[in-house]
Design goal:
410 residues; mainly beta; Immunoglobulin-like; binds CU-O-CU linkage; binds copper (II) ion
């Protein structure tokens, strides 16, 4: 079965901080976030991308184990889609979960201006909930007249933590729930650079998935930390208004709420169970190879031999040859070593990987791993998707100024 959709990227107005006028931005089909694209697991999604933004662009389907030609990376998997041109994206979504799509052309500016939207792959048998709610978390960098501050290419942002917004909020796909409802919340951090340590009140439930991949065991949660591009799924029962906030380091910043209206006459009492797992290759025994990927550069002590602000292993920007050539099916353990003074959210295209715990056991499957300043983390990936795959920091200004490389799976 096909699921066809059209997304037209155009200029538009929105979001609207209440006391100011609308913000001229970019969007898909007249809105930012763009329309919800939904497809059932193992079915094909066909999307015609019509670029009317006034500049070259492309669409990346973040987290989908997609066929390489549909990955949306200009210069690696396709030519950029010129203004006025169209591109047909067509792919099967093998994994059920919470994903998103976004521009992958000058993304540090186009995503910040609004070119992104949610992409949901539905389970064959979805969990039993009263409401399935997408919660986009983002920040915007706005002037006093609520237009974007035009400092997308600001060197200061590039060399530090990235271009942070001065206005942040959640955009839930529905504004109210009933007391006693069981809800699924799909949190997506679409910000360019901000790591959100999210606090949620008013619900009681479990964390059930990260980056679209079900957790083997559902988990209690406190603060849910999401780096740019990361997602978390929560299944929970509503006791009161669901309020979202984050700790800025100085105070609690209120991001918005989903309010309670009425109550559910027959609340669910069944235990919250793990989501059905996706069919992911598990490594057998020891990894065949071990590699180190060192993040270097930036302000405050980031000396490195690369030619741009940031580098991986001393090499800035995309090398002609892949950093890693992996045979299809091989398991590679990669130590992500952060030698810089800033956190980085490292994203591998076309795959999910396991975060490896200190004791060597396999943690959750992710497509983006947050590595804090001066820390390191091992990940283990079974490279089973053939093609050329980008590996980059999802602090988009960091990727723009060197922190990216690629892997070839043959
Ligand atoms: Cu969501 Cu290459 O990125
Ligand atoms: Cu980074």
């Amino acid at each position: 079965m096909n699921h066809a959709a059209e997304v037209t990227a155009t200029k538009l107005m929105g979001p609207e901080p209440s006391k100011y006028g609308p913000t001229p931005s970019l969007g898909f089909n007249g809105s930012t976030p763009g329309p919800l694209l939904k497809v059932r697991q193992s079915e094909e999604l066909a999307v015609t991308f019509e670029n009317r933004t006034g500049e070259a662009s492309s669409v990346h389907w973040h987290g989908i184990r997609i066929s390489n030609g549909m990955d949306g990376v200009p210069g690696l998997t396709q030519e950029a889609v010129l203004d006025g041109a169209d591109f047909d994206y067509r792919f099967v979504a093998p994994d059920a979960g919470t994903f998103w799509y976004h521009s992958h052309s000058r993304s540090w500016e186009q995503v910040a201006r609004g070119l992104y939207g949610p992409l949901i792959v539905e389970e064959i048998t979805p969990p039993d909930v009263d409401a399935d709610i997408i919660v986009i978390v983002d920040d915007w960098r706005l002037d006093e007249d609520a237009t974007f501050i035009d400092d997308f290419d600001g060197m200061f942002h590039f060399a530090h933590g990235g271009r942070m917004g001065n206005y942040a909020k959640v955009i839930p796909s529905q504004s109210s729930v009933r007391r006693g409802d069981r809800v699924r919340l799909r949190l997506i951090n679409t910000a360019n650079a901000r790591v959100f340590p999210l606090d949620l009140t008013g619900i009681e439930g479990k964390l059930v998935a990260l980056d679209g991949m079900p957790l083997e065991h559902v988990e209690n949660f406190g603060t849910v930390t999401l780096a740019p591009a990361q997602r978390a799924d929560i299944i929970a029962d509503v006791a009161d208004d669901i309020e979202f906030s984050f700790w800025t380091g100085q105070d609690d910043y209120a991001l918005g709420a989903i309010v309670v209206e009425g109550s559910n006459p027959s609340p669910r009492s069944a235990e919250i169970l793990p989501l059905p797992s996706n069919d992911m290759a598990k490594p057998r025994g020891e990894p065949e190879r071990r590699e180190i990927l060192r993040m270097q550069g930036g302000a405050m002590g980031g000396q490195h031999p690369g030619e741009d602000i940031w580098s991986f292993n001393g090499v800035s920007d995309l090398p002609d040859q892949p950093w890693l050539k992996a045979e299809r099916g091989s398991a590679v353990q990669i130590s992500l070593v952060n030698d810089t003074s800033f956190p980085h959210g490292i994203h591998l295209h076309g795959h999910h990987f396991y975060e490896v715990a200190e004791d060597g056991s396999l943690g959750p499957l992710r497509d983006t791993s947050l590595v804090n300043a001066r820390e390191s983390r091992d990940i283990l990936c079974v490279f089973e998707n053939p093609g050329k795959w980008l590996l980059h920091c999802h602090m988009l200004g960091h990727s723009a100024t060197g922190m990216k490389t690629w892997v070839e799976v043959t």
